[in-house]
Amino acid sequence: MTTSLQNGITTLLGQIDAPTASFFTSCVHCGLCADACLFYTETKDPKYTPIHKLEPMRRLWQQEYTFWGKLMKNVGLSKPVTDEELTEWEPLVYDSCTLCGRCSLVCPVGNDIVYMVRKMREGMVASGHAPEGLKGATQRAIELGSPMGLNINTLKAQIKHAEKDTGLTVPLDVEGADYMLVLSSAEIADYPEIIGAVARIFKQANVSWTLASDGFEGTNSGIQIGSSDFAAELVGRIVHAAERLKVKYVISPECGHAFTALRWEGPNLIGRPYPFKVIHIIELLDELRSSGRLKTEGVDETRMTFHDPCQMVRRGGVIEQPRNLMHMVAPNFVEMPEPGVQNWCCGGGGGVSANHRAEPLRIQVFSRKKAQLDSVNVKTIVTSCSNCRTMLLDGLENNHMDVEVIGLTELIAEHLADKQEGSAA
Amino acid sequence: MEQELLLWVRGTGLQIAAAVFVIGMVYRMLHILMLGRKKSLAAPRGSEWSGGLRTMWKRSFVTTKLSARGNFTVVAGFIFHIGFFITLFFLTQHIDLFRAVLGLHWPAMPRGVIDMAAVLSIAAMVALLVHRFIDPVKRLLSDYQDYLSWILSFLPLLTGFMLLREIGFEYITLLTMHIASVELLLVIAPFTKLAHMFSTFIARWYNGAVNGFKGIEI
User: For domain A304-414, which architecture applies?
Assistant: First the structure.
């Protein structure tokens, strides 16, 4: 794609729709969104106020869509958006926003600020102002099939390990299976135990499932960088694989933005509804629990808490399900302050973790999560997003905190009831 | 001369201002709505309408934990808006005007309540203005429209309060000033951020609709 200031401006103007216009019209500059953003609360730097991150886009809206703005522009009294300004805004739009959506929850006039940051990023990409780290991740995803540069051979090796560990067959490219499981790169590279965990749970619950060799990667760097074209290409691979295998459901992995990409943005990206349903792995596990197909035995007495991944919970609506699952096996499960939709981000979502320049800031703002954790004094954090998991591990390490981080699916798999008992029910 | 000015201000002047306000606001809101938005092709998990309507109402109350600066803004903002509405809709003289223009009327509130509401509203506005000067976040966000909107909203409250107490000027002068300040507000509001008095409900609806579609109760 050729990038230029003009491309960026045209793209941004094309992004302005009725919601955006109503949001910019309504903003009274009260600054409450600052209180909802960990990049402001942990630095007290006013430039991190969420609505301020949209200033170039707001001015374009004003200059093109309002009476006074147009008038001022015509008499040469308005400040045009320049390349220099977008360069200055790049760290605000990318490094200090994880698309967590907490600001959209607090705005008293009702502005969905993160909805606009997502749009702003489209203009940043088109004008050539996306961070190098994210550009690299997106390029690897498009060219190699994964932002971490993994390929089908890496997955096959992990499948072999899982099969050896569990003694079960991990189905690959099985046509006509009910469910197609998608993974995230971090799972394949860093937390491959998820494959064995899912295999064991699905064996017990008698779920017909498969992985797809041409659609196993759920991480969507296109969504994070803000390029609908790339995002559509990445989602399209999964859709194509699911259609080829004629599955009824595609399971979104423990990865926040993969869920947003696949569940909510995907059909709009490819321009048509899916012939299958998308379900988050945690939603599916909770369905299996409530229908009696997922049974656990024994409990883990460790004092644990659950970290809500923003895209799964606040922006994804999978809120009670992880809690139902936690209660199955963790009698000493405690909630952090402000749990569920109000939860604070790990600091590394929305492409921040792939953006090396953002690292010092990300480490600094982990103080918010640390304060939440300090107040509950737990030994283990359970979460259901592999990126959150990595960010939590990193933050805990930087703060010398002795807390274990595990994935919810694995926690459940560790407590699966004996197969005979399960199938006897 | 003063009599003539008052007659114009409360007659033709008010008619022009009201017409500009109504036509301007309708144009402004339609202009927003006509931009439209893409219908989502994803499978819904809930209703856009129930989410939208819920947020239109619920967002009047902030449920997120805030810092001291945030809490100050919310409390002062509430006092200002509620005080403004009480004086606007529940003062006998205003109700008489609404009855004359719209044919609708409702019971008035006692003068003591109106006085209190006006004083609290004025005090909250002054406090919010000072906060806008000293709070680094608000200072960074603010532009001329914030101060213009403040002046336009403040003048009717101030002149109205002076009028009820006959402070500073003759009754006729105060009445002329009060009505003129309202007209200024009516004429400029549709073209400034004061349009948020209506657009905020559109904004809340869209925000809530996204959550409603996803089945998230916020």
Answer: 3-Layer(aba) Sandwich (3.40)
